[in-house]
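Re: the pair you flagged

First of the two:
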Amino acid sequence: MSDVRLLTFVVPEGVDDPQRVSGGNVYDRRVRDGLLARGWRVTTTEVADAAAVEAAVAGVPEGGTVLLDGLVAAWAPEAIATTSAPARVVVLAHMVRAAFAGADPALVDRERRALGSADLVIATSRWTAAELVARGIVDERRVAVAMPGATDGPPVIGRADRLLCVGAIAPHKGQDLLLEALGRLRHLEWTCTIAGSGAADPRFADRIAETAAEFGPRIRMAGVLDDAALAAAYRRSGLLVAPSRAESFGMVIADARARGLPVIAAAVGGIPESVAGGGAVLVAADEPGALASALEQWMTDPALRRRLRSEAAESRLRTPRWSTTVDRIHRMLVAG
């Protein structure tokens, strides 16, 4: 009997495209590469529509396992429900669409059916797992958690007035809330770099760019940053700001904490998990006034900065790395 472990990994088209940076894509790549390093024979199938998902699932060999990114699983729930019994279906749930305001009801329903048919759902945060169970989408016996790891980086202690916000330029990431908050702090000295792709919601991204331009050079719209440029942005910054309206975990927060960088973030979704251990200030979501108040305190209160920097430095070594994430998923897949 062969010891080779076979895995078909179905992911969104462009998972390796540096211009399509997303937390889900980063997670998928890390898991794929980590399982390959652990001896799995991984066939990665990139898909762009339901038909491609159906073909990928149908092609899983008897006794094999198919691991689907939750985004693409929701495109073809029927394919998951009708998969032949000898194949095991596992879905990576990066998010819970039903928890996002304005989510397409049809897509929410397809996600519910897809996850409900999977043999195992791996959620990327305890919050996501709890939401799936509470909403009746997945039975608690079929859900497990493998939180994202962090990308290693040198410790940083940047200037307090250099702010960084990283994430897709989209309403749920809350860049408009950040700009409104900064508009209330024009009397203070600060600069802010906003990095991320605007492809998800071009109209929203255009509005953010127009508003940012009103601040002149104080706000830099950096676009998509590759690994080296993002690492440099972390090194230059004194504070990460995550003003999300909805967030399953907050992978950029984990990366910031792996560098000892303090965080101000909205207390939504899985973000409290990502800042466990200190070094962060959490504010009410969707309230630019609360965000402005926290930013002002950061910039004007040396004692607060010292405390947050100390806590962030201590939490740096406790922040999970990707090897932990992959080890956990490896054990889940082996357990069958």
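Second of the two:
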Amino acid sequence: MTGCELRAIRSEWGMTQREFAQFLTYTDQQVSKMERGEAKIPEIIEKFVLLEQKLRAIKNLVCTP
């Protein structure tokens, strides 16, 4: 996952960097560096974000009338 992809997912979820950082239990500075490509995105964060994205998609399918 690239920083650009991470930023796109965060934006899709309607979160600020600070909200996203709190969600991931990281600092907003760490999220900013990951999004700009200045820090590597830890594999556990990548897996967590992708899993959460899939769960949100399933929820939208199941909960949409």
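Residues 3-63 form a domain with the 434 Repressor (Amino-terminal Domain) fold (CATH 1.10.260.40).

-B.
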